[in-house]
Amino acid sequence: MLRFLKRYWIFLLTFSIITVVSMGFIFELKKPPPSLPIYNPNMINASLVDSSIQYIRKYHKIGDFKLINQNGDTITQKDYQGKIYVADFFYTTCPTICPKMTHSLKRVQEATKNDDEIKLLSHTVTPEIDNVSRLKRYAEEHGVIDGKWNLVTGPKKAIYRLARKDYCVAKTQGDGGPYDMIHTENLALIDKEKRIRGFYDGTDPKEVDQLLKDIQLLKELEAKKD
After folding, report:
1. Could you count the other beta carbons within 10 Å of the beta carbon of residue 44?
2. What HEC string does 148-182 produce?
3. DSSP label at 3?
4. pLDDT digits (tens, 9 = 90+) for 170-224
């Protein structure tokens, strides 16, 4: 047996290599193409979703809005039409997770600053405090690029509706106080059809790394549809 193996070792080695390569090739052919989920309310942690929409299983999209940005300009869904964007909820006086989330969004801004297809949208959850001038000052302090990244304020009821019923990233609807919304560290990735395609912990650098990868993947998926 040993003599046989010595005699045919080259053939056996070649056969083994071909078999391994062939199996790997077959595996790659069968592997589904990369994709991203489309999040609907029934898929999301119930504590982050208003009870009136928790049953929704499909067709969930970010609703229309009309808010004011750091420059006093009116921002609506039309400003994000045909764009991929990342949204979050914060407030300028937050001492805990918000500075980390803003830093993470600045990373996204820097990585995509030459890409007009990608935008950012940050909603204040304390609109009584975060007026236009305060948002402008915050934007300047954190290197926000006008036109790329909007920090928005507006009617509290409208912002809270967006947080609970559209983006699904807040734990409460609020009880009337200035700091009554318990928002989360989630960054939401939104596609060109206004659908949620991912949630990422804005305080975790590794999650932000994944967000940047998923933005590029989403761009590729969107390009294939065009």
Report:
1. 20
2. CEEEEECCHHHHHHHHHHHCCCECCCCCCCCCCCC
3. H
4. 886 655 555 556 778 999 999 999 999 999 999 999 999 999 999 999 999 999 8
Residue with tokens 């970010």: 62
List CB contacts of 43: < 8 A, sequence separation 6 or more.
37
Is the torsion defined by CA of 75, 77, 82, 83 positive or negative? positive
Length of the chain: 226
Q: What are phi and psi of 194, to 5 degrees?
A: 70, 25
**Phi/psi class of residue 199: alpha, beta or left (left: φ > 0; alpha: ψ in -120 to 50)?**
beta
CA-based angle 136:141:147, to the nearest 5?
A: 50
- The per-residue pLDDT for 225 is 79
Report the pLDDT value the prediction gives residue 180, as an integer from 0 to 100: 57
Other C-beta atoms closer than 10 Å to the C-beta of 205 total 13
Which of the four CATH numbers 3.65.10.10, 2.40.10.270, 3.40.30.10, 3.30.1330.30 does domain 41-225 have? 3.40.30.10
**74 Cβ neighbours under 8 A, 6+ residues apart:** 66, 67, 68
HSE-up (13 A, CA, CB side) for residue 209: 3
CA dihedral of 112, 127, 167, 87, whole degrees rounded to 10:
0
Q: Can you give the residue ranges of every domain in the chain? A: 1-31, 41-225
